[in-house]
């Protein structure tokens, strides 16, 4: 495909014989924002480091806009902007001074330097902070400077590791809007622990667990998984569970906090029949709404593994 920006092909990284990342394969296209999710130790940072050319894979390869990271690291890296979790800021410099250094490090040529700095500041809402020392900026503005250095050379791919950690709600809102804006022209990979953030800024999601991808798909697919096939129904004079189960399409009912959680078969739409039955039999219907699984629940379902209790291991030994 012509506009593929990132290709991770069967990426594996071993540490002392243990796979921290195992056989991870995915593609990213221009204009996509990918959310990279996973519990602690899942392999996110290891994957990011391989994507940015800071760590060699034990097996597999990375291509940035078709350029192989192992074969042509300089060319491939030039197409990436990276904001690591620990912001690489020199706080004793002003915003202008620091961004000028960042632009030079990214090989922006002398005649384009000033324009590149101005443009990055403009995009990150930093134009009025040019002469301020970075150490005197708020956390949110320091984060903007970190993002500005990642986009200063107008890279095809921007990789941001936990970009909203430690920010207040207004700063978080601003940084998320900025990520969305950047995502229109570039490809963005955002590593995050914050699940709603993924729904807000990403159009594509990957969940990694124990080094393996356990979900790779569109945000719509993930949202669909949340909506599922459950209704929460509140009835003041409820019938028995058996009566509810006779409604066409209903497969299971259970009482949850004095409301009925009604599961229905895929493809069936028992909503209308439930309302009609409630009116007909005077059940006192006061609530009917989809019972969404929280994103946290979906995440736990995908990443939960039953671990063998220590006592059982000891007994087996
Ligand atoms: N240099 C290393 N040597 C040995 N093991 C390592 C090394 N770096 C990471 N690991 C192990 O590899 C696994 C994946 O680590 P990684 O840092 O990629 O996870 P992560 O998803 O980024 O976690 P977190 O969100 O906590 O930063 C972990 O089990 C970790 O202990």
UniProtKB/TrEMBL annotation:
Keyword Phosphoprotein attached: no
PROSITE patterns from the UniProt entry: ABC_TRANSPORTER_2 (PS50893)
GO MF term (any one): ATP binding
Protein name: ATP-binding cassette domain-containing protein
Position of the signal peptide: none
Keywords in alphabetical order: ATP-binding, Cell membrane, Membrane, Nucleotide-binding, Transport
Entry's family note: Belongs to the ABC transporter superfamily.
Organism from which the protein derives: Methylophilus aquaticus
Keyword Nucleotide-binding: yes
Stretches assigned to the ABC transporter domain: 6-235
Domain of life: Bacteria
């Amino acid at each position: 495909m012509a506009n593929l920006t990132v290709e991770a092909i069967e990426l594996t990284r071993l540490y002392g014989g243990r796979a921290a990342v195992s056989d991870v394969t995915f593609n990213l296209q221009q204009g996509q924002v990918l959310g990279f999710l996973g519990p602690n130790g899942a392999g996110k940072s290891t994957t990011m480091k391989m994507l940015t050319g800071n760590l060699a894979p034990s097996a597999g390869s990375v291509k940035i806009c078709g350029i192989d990271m192992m074969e042509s690291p300089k060319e491939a890296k030039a197409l990436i902007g990276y904001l690591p979790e620990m912001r690489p800021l020199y706080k004793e410099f002003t915003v202008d001074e620091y961004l000028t250094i960042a632009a030079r490090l990214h090989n922006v040529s002398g005649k384009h330097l000033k324009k590149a700095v101005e443009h990055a500041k403009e995009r990150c809402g930093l134009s009025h902070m040019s002469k301020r020392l970075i150490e005197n900026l708020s956390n949110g503005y320091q984060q903007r400077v970190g993002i500005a250095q990642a986009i200063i050379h107008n890279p095809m791919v921007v990789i941001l590791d936990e970009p909203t950690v430690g920010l207040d709600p207004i700063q978080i809102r601003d940084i998320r809007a900025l990520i969305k804006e950047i995502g229109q022209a570039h490809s963005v990979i955002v590593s995050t622990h914050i699940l709603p953030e993924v729904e807000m800024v990403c159009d594509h999601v990957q969940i990694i667990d124990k080094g393996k991808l356990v979900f790779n798909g569109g945000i719509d697919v993930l949202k669909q998984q949340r909506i599922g096939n459950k209704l929460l129904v509140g009835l003041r004079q409820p019938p028995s569970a058996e009566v509810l189960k006779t409604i066409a399409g209903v497969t299971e009912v259970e009482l949850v906090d004095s409301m009925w959680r009604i599961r229905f078969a895929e493809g069936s739409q028992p909503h209308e029949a439930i309302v009609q039955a409630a009116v007909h039999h005077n059940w006192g219907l006061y609530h009917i709404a989809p019972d969404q699984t929280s994103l946290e629940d979906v995440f736990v379902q995908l990443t939960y593994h039953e671990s063998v209790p220590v006592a059982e291991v000891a007994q087996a030994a």
